[in-house]
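User
Take a look at the entry that follows and flag anything odd:
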Amino acid sequence: MPELISSHPLAVIVVIALTVAMVPNVGCLEAGSPAGTLTGYVSIGPLCPVEPCSVPHDRLVAAYAARPITISTPGGSAVATVIADPETGYTVSLKPGTYVIDIHHQGIGGSRDLPATVTLRSGETVRLNISIDTGIR
């Protein structure tokens, strides 16, 4: 029988198709299945010890760049790192699944919003707004 399969290309294709159909599709996107989107605004402050505070745009952008957002699997494997824009926030497309969103915790300050766990479904948009306290007083 193996000789019959190897000598007929159509038989080989049928065997491969049946084998693939029996293997579970765990963690894979289905053909034509869109990713999910994680989006949100990020506020960082205070940036001056005294109000009112006037910060040049390049210093504001640097404050956001110094606090990248890390997206990981629940097991801790990093999937993506995103730097938010002061005006538009952040947006990232991800495979459907569960993710842990966090920032690097450095010195004083931090965020009460993080770490956060989100679940994305195919074609769904999840909004996670983040407020980061710099600890400047």
